[in-house]
Amino acid sequence: MADPRLGASEETRVFTQVLFRRYAVYTLGVLLFILGLGAMERMGWPRSWIGGTFLIATVAVYAAIGLMSRTTDEAEYYVAGRRVPAVFNGMATAADWMSAASFIGTAGVLYLQGFAGLAYILGWTGGYCLVALLLAPYLRRLGFFTIPEFLGARYGGELPRLVGVVAVALVSFVYVVVQIYGVGLITSHLTGFSFEIGIFVGLGGVLVCSFLGGMRAVTWTQVAQYIILILAYLAPVVWMSLNQTGSPFPLFSYGQQLEHVTQREEVFKKDPAELTVIRQLQVRADDALRKLADVRQAMVDDAETLSAQVKALQLADAAPARVQQAERRLLSRPQTEDAARLAYQHDYDDARQRALPLGGMPPQAQPIAAGNPRGDAVAREAYEVGRRNFLALVLCLMLGTAAMPHVLTRYYTTPSVSEARRSVAWSLFFIALLYLAAPALAVMVKYEVFTNLIGMPFDQLPGWIRRWAKLDPTLVSVEDINGDGLLQLAELHLGGDVIVLAAPEIGGLPLVVTCLVAAGGLAAALSTADGLLLTISNALSHDLYFRLINPRAPAMRRVMLSKFLVLVVALLAAFIASMRFADILQFVAAAFSLAAATFFPALVMGIFWRRANRAGAVLGMLSGLGVCAYYMVTNHELLRRVFGIARPLHDCAWWGIDSMAAGVFGAPAGALVLVIASLLTPPPRPAEQALVDRLRTPGWS
Amino acid sequence: MDDRKHDRPPTQTYWRRVCLWTLLGLVLWFCVTFGVSWWAHALDAWKVGRMPAGYWWATQGAIGVYLLIIVGHAWLMDRLEREVLTEDDARHG
To answer: What is the ipTM of this complex?
Structure first.
């Protein structure tokens, strides 16, 4: 048992105990801090102070850990000295893995899309089976620093390594921009700073860690961040479960809430007031469609109607606020024809979506909401396409998970191969804590909305609706469409991102929990951004500069260069995030598809198929990337417009699969090309064969 | 003779068994993933606790199976490695 090649060595065990003690003290400190702030809230501290204290305290703790772990040693900087025990590497991976989108977005998607959102839960957990069975232990056995380094050593030559560097940088950069966007969003929500300042405050926290201490600092901060983010996620879930069902174990108790939600859905579908609202929304949609048919005429009509409204209000001596409101509508109407067309299109889409039953949300528990397996031919076809897309997205996210470079590098940091395998199990355990809670949270928020909020008189609506509606009307808005003074489901619009951030307020929890949740979201975004930045800069400095440009560079200079690159990449990403591109979250799925298509075949075949060689790997990676990019360009709404694709969408899609899951085509294409090209060219050289043998020999670590 | 170490039979049987167990894990993984995604509607004929079975499998059951696959695989791999290494040690003293 004491064999250092197997299981945990004595040194690791002692270190684990020390770490347990340290992080226990830290967790206790966090709990006391929250209780303290809760007490201050009762004594009447204002909202912005509590939010600000939370922001400053958490970022300061991360920065302090970063400062304490500063290093210039190469092994410490790249792989944290390879002594991170399995449990803690699991926590760090969980924080690394769970991004702002996981933390804030998942429960929201489940709330809005019901069963369809479970594709993310399945994909982002099942992918770890592939990591554990196919990749992590073997990558650890070779003991490199980066993923392109493995490609370079296994396939020989510069080209595989170069393709690897470019793909790592591409995939991770797309992902890091989204994280920094999330940091800006949460910081501004927490403190009231502007979005741009929020980005740079959060960025300071990221930089101190990865800049000073590399992987070593990032690892220990990520563990600290995981503890905050999981506390922040579970606190409102457990609290709501206690309130609604009397049980502190939401996992076992939310089944009954799901039953209630399903019953209420049936009631809403037949409710006369809901049906009235839906009819009025349909009238709006028709109206917008009419305007779209002749935009120029509609603009003239709109201007006339709006100015007539202002005049009528002035003549009737209405309240000044109402007159001002009408004047503002008149002034802010779109001025150019293009802007007007976009606005009408938006009105049309919005009204049509909300005119669907249940405000456009499919029944929570119904699998594949589109179509019906027992309906007519059209309904059956819609159902088939729906479940094909569900499966494709699940598989694509799984392959992407197993090929995300920033996650794979985490398994380089364990003390042994065996610890790497155990570490994957711990990673999934810690990740599952959040992903098991997300559906429960979505159902319980829905229960709260369906039973307490809907049917409430407009003048008694809770404060959070007004506050969020003021902060961002695209996230929360209410409108008394049928004029009965009561809120109907179709009159309420809740954006996905608000479900988690506002859950404590929806459940009636103290303000301090709201701030805790925001701090948790910040931790999720910062930890992922940290890991990604480090992955990009290490690939650039270690693989591009050291291996390809200047092989004689001393270790010290390589580390310094990597630090400098962290700074440059972070600033570039912050700059792009601050431009606030619309639809930025769609690019998360794109990053997964690209990672799956480029890396997955080359990594797995490199380990399990001896005959895979350089030509095969390079062509395989490039064609995987190419097929994936081609499918995205021809099928994605935004990219189609950018590249001016005229062919109708229907002809471009293969088997009706959405562009989000482009990786399911890219990865098999890449694998196929890899096999064919490898068989057509000479087998790998002896050095590469020896590496494959090393991969397959136990006891290497 | 050390550089020819990898050609010795115990390592080859070791690798064959590793591949076999890995394949088994992957088959299990695929069956669960595919089954939950493809037959969710049919699964709803049953219930787990108070939830429709399709929903329960997609939110909890599948994740549990994934975790079991990983834990089981790690345990088996540890056992295999220990066998090979003790055999190795016995041979070379």
So the answer is: 0.89
